[in-house]
Specification:
This protein is of the alpha+beta class. The chain has three domains: 61 residues, no CATH class; 117 residues, Lambda Exonuclease, Chain A, CATH 3.90.320; 41 residues, no CATH class. The protein is built from nine helices and seven strands, in the order αααααβββββαββααα. Strands 1-4-5-6-7 form a five-stranded mixed sheet, covered by helices on one side. A two-stranded antiparallel ribbon has the order 2-3. Strand 2 and strand 3 form a beta hairpin. It is globular and about 55 Å long.
């Protein structure tokens, strides 16, 4: 809650827009909220709901005895570690929440979720995490060489911290084939959008890109200010 208050105060002061601000001086406290930068306000009920969800998520986490028991058996837990690998001509970077190593047994990837309803199935995200773990160059502090495993060997847990639900994903080769196809299509779409020629992006003007047909997309777009600068 103390960090919550510090972040809220910094966001309300719009310090991220101050050119004199050095992000390294603030660490995790440097924060900006979309609603403050674009919509002009942050309602009290939104702040109260966020506080309640923080408390609920932490309380739920420490109440998951089965999950804790499993984590305690791990030889090593590594959090928020970037995993990079090459997919055709594209560099892919994934950052799993937790990688749990269990001696000679395959690792398990844990992904925290804080959706109130928890309806969305994150199998694709976890499939890409598993692919990244088995295809990346192992970090020095990895207790085992992860490239010895197949993607289907990796344990995958989606943990909903607001509902207490744990969803174990048991994926097959077809799922990873779909994940590979998704990466390929995404990379191709980005290359086409950038107008890459021989691997190099051409100089493009924002005005050549099509305008969305859905106004609600603009409401949540983090690049609205750039659009406004172009228009104005």
């Amino acid at each position: 809650m103390a960090r919550f208050d510090r972040q809220l105060a910094i966001a309300r002061e719009h310090r991220i827009l101050d050119p004199a601000v050095k992000p390294s001086s603030y660490g995790d406290d440097l924060t900006a909220f979309h609603c403050l930068e674009y919509d002009g306000g942050l309602h009290t009920e939104e702040i109260d709901r966020a506080r309640d969800e923080v408390v609920k998520a932490v309380t739920t986490f420490f109440g998951m005895e089965d999950l804790f028991a499993r984590l305690r058996t791990a030889d090593r837990l590594i959090t928020q570690r970037a995993l990079s690998f090459e997919h055709s001509d594209t560099s892919v970077r994934a950052v799993p929440d937790v990688i749990a190593f269990f001696g000679s047994a395959p690792p398990t990837i844990i992904d925290w979720k804080v959706h109130v309803f928890g309806w969305r199935d994150a199998w694709l995200q976890l499939a890409i995490y598993a692919a990244a773990l088995t295809r990346c160059k192992p970090h020095r502090d990895f207790p085992v060489a992860t490239d010895q495993y197949m993607e289907t060997d990796i344990g995958l847990l989606e943990v909903q911290l607001l509902t207490g639900m744990i969803r174990a994903h048991e994926l097959e080769e077809k799922h990873f084939a779909r994940a590979d196809a998704y990466i390929a299509m995404s990379a191709e779409s980005m290359d086409l959008a950038l107008g890459k020629v021989n691997g190099k992006a051409a100089a493009l003007e924002p005005t050549i890109f099509p305008v969305t047909r859905y106004p609600n997309v603009c409401e949540r777009c983090p690049y609205r200010a750039l659009c406004w600068e172009t228009v104005l």
